[in-house]
């Protein structure tokens, strides 16, 4: 089994598990912005129980990797548009946003966070379980060929339809069908042609 510290060092290992963003909520609930997709730097720091500077330092050192996983720094018109759409009331000149994938990426980079360590351990446990499950390589052979099954269905349907054609269908001229006590009267049907 891979040691959780391997995720700290290997970008290839990190890239291999970045789709597993569900792990974040399994370890601890991640609060999102009103858009339901992003978190701010302060929210990331609160999630991992670290200071703002720890997150900012990781962004500085791994910016390209984080940007490929959904980190963005909004300024100018992008920031105004985002504020209007999400309802954020802030006077800041820039806003750093992290997608869930970028937050997971940070979990694999943060060294001094117990929450990040738990995320890494959970990820590796899930990968270990997936790799150690036996694979069913048995070739399942169907004893009845496809042609035989088609023949059986055709035979079954044709015999069912022949049963319908030979059965008697009750006539609709009995008194129960018309709601009367006797046979239909001369005035049936009630409308005149």
TL;DR?
It is built from 11 helices and 3 strands. It is mostly helical. 18% of the residues are buried.
Overview of the molecule:
- Helix content is 54%, strand content 7%.
- It is mainly alpha-helical.
- Strands 1-3-2 form a three-stranded antiparallel β-sheet.
- The protein is elongated and about 80 Å long.
- The model has no long low-confidence stretch (mean pLDDT 76).
Features:
193 residues; three-stranded antiparallel sheet
Show unreliable segments.
none
The strands making up the biggest β-sheet line up spatially as 1-3-2
Q: Can you count the helices? A: 11
Tell me the Rg in angstroms.
Answer: 34 Å
* Major sheet summary line: 3 strands, antiparallel
What is the general shape? elongated
Structural class computed from helices and strand pairing: mainly alpha
Task: Determine the mean pLDDT.
Answer: 76
Strand and helix map with partners:
Blueprint: H1 5-9, H2 11-16, H3 22-27, E1 38-40, H4 41-48, H5 52-61, H6 63-68, E2 72-75, H7 76-86, E3 94-99, H8 100-107, H9 114-132, H10 146-166, H11 175-178
Antiparallel strand pairs: 1-3, 2-3
